Amino acid sequence: MSINKILDLLYPGRCPVCDRILAYRETLVCPDCIGKLAYIKEPKCMKCGKQMMDNETEYCAGCRDKRRYFRKGFSVFLYNDVMKKSIYRFKYANRREYSRFYAETVCRCLGKEIREFCADAIIPVPLHPKRFRKRGYNQAGLIANEIGRRMNIPVREEILIRERNTKALKLMTLTERENNLKKAFKMVKNDVKLNTVIIVDDILTTGSTINEISRVLRENGIKNVYFVALASGADV
Ligand SMILES: [Zn+2]
Ligand SMILES: [Zn+2]
After folding, report:
1. Ligand 2 center to residue 62 CA distance, Å?
2. In this model, does residue 196 exceed pLDDT 90?
3. Architecture of 37-232 per CATH?
4. Separation of 75 CA from ligand 1 center, angstroms?
């Protein structure tokens, strides 16, 4: 019996959509639940990959208004009610196993794009150490590691740290968010001289967190920054 099968028996997986325990983890999601997920589709923003209302413009409002430090990014799922509940349990109810389904879907839908980035490393959006201790894991780190393993790209979690415990971003205006993010991230070392990296996060809202991280990475000599997010809201 493989180690994965033993782990499956010891820790049965749950469906990331309905949270039901899957009888035997042959699949990572109930077949009935797959149809409840909404995928990002065209037209997409040429820069951040957000789903747009129409294809009259190439870029979403955020990418038109702000300087972007990343080259390009994509997300897989539309951040609708189903995905909101799923990611909530993933972050706050210890459903770490969801990362397998999430990463598998990311690689299935964006494998070609990820390969074309030719990245030297994947860097997950870090949590502040205090929040990490409280939660016991970094949800973006779990997804990043699963993607890295599947795509054979090293994950460098230690390279970026979060110094400021930013407040709940959803309660702030865009300007407040951006001020709050300043000096939130610090790169600790670039010893292997990384040129191209992919940032991984769970949810993309305004893109300000990923943009700020991209700025810091570029400032530290990384030339090309791309990102992959699990879910993003549509451009409105
Ligand atoms: Zn289900
Ligand atoms: Zn955009």
Report:
1. 6
2. yes
3. 3-Layer(aba) Sandwich (3.40)
4. 22
